[in-house]
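Please go through this protein, sequence plus structure tokens, and consider how the sequence yields the tokens. Keep your notes short.
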Amino acid sequence: MGCARDQNGNHVIHKCIKCVPMEKIGFIISTFRGQVATLCTHPYGCHVIKRVLEHCSDVNV
């Protein structure tokens, strides 16, 4: 969660979501479970949630 809220760390998560197969990053996505509302209202976290919605169609966050 720290990286999702970090000015630079969120870019690392973006790249992972975009480039790494879903089965390899499930542990990252599962970290957001129960935190979506908080991340959606955060200046950097909202970009991470946007990337999840764009690239991870079968995710239950």
Remarks:
- The chain has a mean pLDDT of 89.
- The chain has four helices and no strands.
- The chain has one domain: 9-55.
